[in-house]
Amino acid sequence: MTFKIEDRHGYTDVAPQFLGLDGGALSITGTAFNDNGLLLTNLFWTQRAENGAWTLQVGQIDVTDFVDIYGLVSPYSGFQNLSFNTNPTINTPNQGIGIAGGIKLSENFYAVASVADANADPSDPSLDVFSDGNLFKSFEIGYTSGFDRIYFDNVHLTLWHAEAADDGSRAEDYGAVFSAAWFVDNKWMPFFRAGASKGTAALYDRSVSAGLGYYGRNTDLAGLGLNWAEARNIDGDQFTLEAFYRFSISPGLQITPSLQFISNPLLNPNQDSITLFSLRTRIVF
């Protein structure tokens, strides 16, 4: 059994997650750093085959834990802009009731699928999901050099579909994403990620990201990423650059200064660019 309870609070008028939107950019600039309060983000049972051939999870799940992931996906230790986390062309739901499973197809190929509550609200967990029929579904097939390196050496294609909400608050959406990342010499991680969707509810209609991660001394990590995106019913192309360096002060303390530069903010055509500086601290007990 796995469980996680979070309590998120903002200490400024605008939480880091929404600084881009506040400045006129169609961009989530601080993924997970919001003011959502008390949340039940995980409460699920995991069942695995003895030989590791398959895994099943049932309960309160977070689909971003397994949909379109790669080695630099974590907003707590890697990039902070959503353009370099879970693909922003995917209309991923909040944490809620769902079923997810993975299976090894061969020594190098795997498949992952999920069905989850598209209307989930982790601040008010509900079991009334499958009777409503408002579901998020995903299917992924991928290749890895070995299952002990699935988060580091990974190439995959993900298909997803989100049903329309019964109350009309969300239209049907679907799309596909591709991701390729490889850990070279256990130091360099180049990546290329692209996605396209119907674009009715996802942040972007189309998106392409590319970049590089470099693991330095101890567990230091440098990252550089560039994203191009366009959104439905908004003219223009938005470009996002993020650069960071994660200093590992001790095994339990990391400090990460970062820079985000957003060119041609889609929500404010009168502004040429937005620049954000941040300092993230992570303490692990």
How would you spell out the order of helices and strands?
EHEEEEEEEEEEEEE
Q: Gyration radius, to the nearest Å?
A: 19 Å
Binned strand content:
over 45%
What percentage of residues falls in helices of 4 or more residues?
A: under 10%
CATH class: Mainly Beta
Q: Report the total helices.
A: 1
N- and C-termini, Cα separation: 21 Å
For the residues shown, what is the average pLDDT? 92
Number of strands: 14
Helix-strand blueprint:
Blueprint: E1 2-8, H1 19-23, E2 37-48, E3 54-61, E4 96-104, E5 109-117, E6 135-144, E7 154-162, E8 173-181, E9 188-197, E10 206-215, E11 221-230, E12 238-250, E13 253-263, E14 273-283
Antiparallel strand pairs: 1-2, 2-3, 3-4, 4-5, 5-6, 6-7, 7-8, 8-9, 9-10, 10-11, 11-12, 12-13, 13-14
Can you put this structure into words, describing what you see?
It is a single chain. The protein has 285 residues and is mostly beta strands. It has a single domain (2-283), classed as Beta Barrel (Porin). Helix content is 2%, strand content 48%. It has one helix and 14 strands, in the order βαβββββββββββββ. It has one helix at 19-23, and strands at residues 2-8, 37-48, 54-61, 96-104, 109-117, 135-144, 154-162, 173-181, 188-197, 206-215, 221-230, 238-250, 253-263, 273-283. A 14-stranded antiparallel sheet has the order 1-2-3-4-5-6-7-8-9-10-11-12-13-14. Strand 9 and strand 10 form a beta hairpin. It is globular. The two termini are 21 Å apart. The mean pLDDT is 92.
